[in-house]
């Protein structure tokens, strides 16, 4: 993976998002386990009131705007601080718009994301092209505050808005042959500079995949918003995957196709450099990348004068919830 990590974060102090009132992740997960999530999240603050310094989105379809505004706030996981909105939206990986961390915020505005639809195909009883509005019509949007750990060694804490992927999977009724999900990002040359570039290394479209049980896990979400507003284009508008216990490259952006397949799909980074990027890509401080250690991470904002380096946690701190998915597997081999 191309690594270009600036030493100093570009966020000014004045741009730091204030902390707000949240539920703890523990209580969210306890509620998930008890099946009473909607009750647990019925808290007073509206998501958008807590991020008063977050700029309004340029254009959001009316059906999405009203849905986002109705999402109840959740509490920050203990010991964490939400990454400033500026960092989360100006330090991105989205190679379709270029390979530097600033390219997506500079160029992703060129992408038109409305109307949007997702093709669902393969081993399902209800294949078809689903509009974004239709996809959202049968789900309750929720806020989830997750750590995001990039394989390059930096991390953030992001308040996403989305819904469990499991709800969509149940809706389309996978057959007994569906063992993996394959996700595909839009390719639109005229609106994507990175795709047009002659220098690019990536073979488009960007592809990612999950095992069906990973996709069904309650922590796995499809996100349509962050920081109480719709997803900025550079973060994967209008629909992206978020799998918080895996390296960030699994969390594929701007999804246009989800295929239910029998065999493990060939995915972008794993195909390009199989010695460096595995299919599972579970965050693991004990398994080094061949060119660097994964034992520690730089939590953004991080600078020479205000370093914010911390130990990386197994499964990015979600081991209690997800370790059982991998019981009996050698995580060094299946990295
Ligand atoms: N999805 C697509 N389509 N293209 C990409 O280049 N980069 C991945 C992932 N999803 C990428 C993508 C990587 S490497 C990371 S770390 C995360 O997006 C970054 O998400 P963020 O920019 O919202 O922090």
Explained architecture:
With 335 residues, the protein is of the alpha+beta class. 19% of the residues lie in helices and 19% in strands. The chain contains 11 helices and 12 strands. The chain has helices at residues 25-34, 37-40, 62-69, 85-90, 103-107, 132-137, 165-172, 193-196, 212-216, 268-272, 319-322; strands spanning 117-122, 128-131, 142-149, 154-164, 180-185, 207-211, 221-226, 229-230, 240-242, 255-261, 296-299, 309-311. Strands 3, 4, 7, 8, 9, 11 and 12 form a 7-stranded mixed β-sheet that branches. A 5-stranded mixed β-sheet has the order 2-1-10-5-6. A hairpin with a 2-residue loop joins strand 7 (221-226) and strand 8. The longest helix has 10 residues, at 25-34. The radius of gyration is 19 Å and the shape is globular. The model is unreliable at 3-45 (pLDDT under 50). Bound molecules: ligand MTE. The site of ligand MTE has 16 residues, from loops.
Quick structural overview:
The chain is an alpha+beta fold. It contains eleven helices and twelve strands. It is globular, with a radius of gyration of 19 Å.
